[in-house]
């Protein structure tokens, strides 16, 4: 890994989603960190300062929308992409209002993830 | 779809054995041709167009044909012709039964007639089964009350069957609802959605069914019930409920999904209105649902 390697933080309570997304991102030569809830995600964000955060919305303990707010308080310029199965208009609006860079509905594909990371495969 | 229902009927009646049923299901799988393949074969669509429609289907609750027409890839008469070709494939099952010597022609004819009588299928309903029309099949087996709640139950089960086809690549066999129970035997995976209405949903699966569903959904070769397998089934339920909520949101009804819970052999803590069995090649799962309007 060099200084140009994109650092990506995945936050999702699903092991399956974390594994599949990690496999996809590592194949794109990204350095990947994982959090299984919003609380862990905020802590890892402070430590690693990732280039992009992929954030689930529905999670136990601290949900994705609350974690998004806390990350934005730490770094207003943080790039957080919401990744959720519930792409309802209310959730989408709330996420964008709170500074989310994008919203990807599950099931996602490799092209959507690559675009969000900044690759145009 | 017809293969599963008629095959299951023949097995339940002792007309064919379990291994013969497995043979027939494997045969059905081998000859099952998707609409996209038929469209390419007929020179009506390119592979890229079929891929584009499949990709859109992953996030939209719409049929292949509907999307293909919207995109201008097919006309309605072309789609009708392809659907006709697809439906005629149920005849392959009857041919396989005869070819393999499981039944004589007379026995097959009598079994088909009894199947229609015992399932109380009208000719129209029988045609729906042959066409693998999931919307019609749900209405054949389930009788929900008239009105808004009934309509939501129909939508929920219909979407679940479609998602089983899409994401598990399974051919689900829906049966009549079972009596409500307060205790589950097997893994119970539940999820609630709260908002303008409340939706409580749950899946009950044996170890073998859980591993089978998890393997298909995760596309990993799983062999035992572990955290990854349980999580995979929970994520399938989450994905399905998410799509259902998007459909509701499009109609102006907003709900928030709650995190899923997974427990073994437990008592239900919530009221359930329906317990619906769905048979898959890896075993039976039961769907528990309640809606509070």
Question: Largest sheet of chain B, described in full?
Answer: 7 strands, antiparallel
| Count of DSSP strands of chain B | 7
What structural class do the secondary elements of chain A suggest? alpha/beta
Helical run tally of chain A: 5
Percent of residues in β-strands of chain A: 15-25%
pLDDT below 50 for ≥5 consecutive residues: which ranges of chain A? Answer: none
Query: Termini of chain A, distance in Å?
Result: 20 Å
Quaternary state of this entry equals heterodimer
Estimated helix fraction of chain B:
40-55%
State the shape of chain A: globular
- Greatest interface: A-B, 22 and 27 residues
Helices and strands of chain A, in order, run as EHEHEHEHEH
Described by strand count, sense and barrel closure, the largest sheet of chain A is: 5 strands, parallel
Summarize the structure.
The complex is a heterodimer of chains A (121) and B (293). Chain A is an alpha/beta fold.
Structural commentary:
The complex is a heterodimer of chains A (121) and B (293). By secondary structure, chain A is an alpha/beta fold. Helices cover 43% and strands 19% of the residues of chain A. In chain A, strands 2-1-3-4-5 form a five-stranded parallel beta sheet, sandwiched between helices. With 293 residues, chain B is α+β, with helices and mostly antiparallel strands. Helix content of chain B is 54%, strand content 15%. Chain B has helices at residues 2-12, 18-31, 35-41, 47-57, 64-70, 76-87, 91-99, 105-118, 123-130, 134-141, 148-168, 207-218, 227-250; strands spanning 173-174, 187-195, 198-205, 255-257, 261-264, 274-280, 283-292. In chain B, a hairpin with a 2-residue loop joins strand 6 and strand 7 (283-292). In chain B, helix 12 packs across helix 13 (227-250). Chain B is globular. The mean pLDDT of chain B is 85. The interface between A and B is medium-sized, with 22 and 27 residues.
Keywords:
heterodimer; A: 121 residues; 5 helices; B: 293 residues; alpha+beta; 13 helices; 54% helix; globular
């Amino acid at each position: 890994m060099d200084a140009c390697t994109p650092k990506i933080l995945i936050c999702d309570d699903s092991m399956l989603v974390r594994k599949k997304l990690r496999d996809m991102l590592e194949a794109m030569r990204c350095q990947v960190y994982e959090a299984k809830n919003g609380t862990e995600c905020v802590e890892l964000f402070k430590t690693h300062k990732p280039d992009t955060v992929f954030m689930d919305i529905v999670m136990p303990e601290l949900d994705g929308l609350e974690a998004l707010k806390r990350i934005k308080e730490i770094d207003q310029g943080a790039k957080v992409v919401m990744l959720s199965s519930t792409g309802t208009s209310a959730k989408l609006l709330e996420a964008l209002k709170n500074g989310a860079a994008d919203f990807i509905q599950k099931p996602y594909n490799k092209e959507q993830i690559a675009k969000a990371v900044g690759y145009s495969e | 779809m017809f293969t599963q229902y008629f095959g299951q009927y023949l097995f339940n009646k002792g007309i064919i054995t379990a291994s013969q049923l497995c043979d027939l299901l494997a045969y059905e799988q081998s000859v099952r041709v998707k609409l996209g393949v038929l469209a390419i074969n007929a020179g009506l669509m390119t592979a890229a167009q079929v891929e584009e429609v499949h990709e859109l289907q992953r996030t939209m609750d719409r049929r292949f044909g509907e999307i293909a027409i919207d995109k201008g890839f097919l006309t309605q008469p072309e789609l009708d012709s392809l659907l006709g070709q697809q439906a005629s494939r149920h005849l392959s099952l009857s041919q396989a039964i005869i070819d393999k010597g499981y039944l004589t022609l007379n026995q097959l004819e009598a079994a088909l007639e009894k199947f229609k009588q015992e399932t109380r299928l009208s000719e129209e309903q029988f045609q729906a089964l042959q066409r693998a029309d999931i919307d019609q099949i749900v209405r054949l087996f389930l009788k929900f009350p008239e009105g808004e709640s009934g309509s939501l139950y129909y939508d929920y089960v219909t979407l679940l069957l479609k998602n089983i086809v899409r994401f598990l690549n399974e051919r689900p066999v829906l049966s009549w609802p079972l009596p409500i129970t307060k205790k589950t035997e097997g893994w119970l995976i539940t999820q609630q959605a709260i908002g303008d209405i409340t939706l409580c949903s749950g899946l009950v699966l044996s170890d073998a069914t859980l591993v089978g569903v998890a393997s298909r959904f995760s596309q990993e070769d799983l062999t035992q019930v572990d955290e990854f397998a349980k999580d995979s089934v929970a994520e399938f339920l989450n994905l399905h409920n998410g799509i259902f909520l998007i459909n509701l949101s499009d109609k102006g009804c907003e709900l928030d999904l709650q995190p899923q819970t997974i427990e073994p052999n437990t008592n239900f803590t919530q009221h359930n209105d329906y317990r619906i069995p769905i048979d898959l090649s890896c075993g039976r799962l039961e769907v528990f649902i309640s809606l509070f309007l």
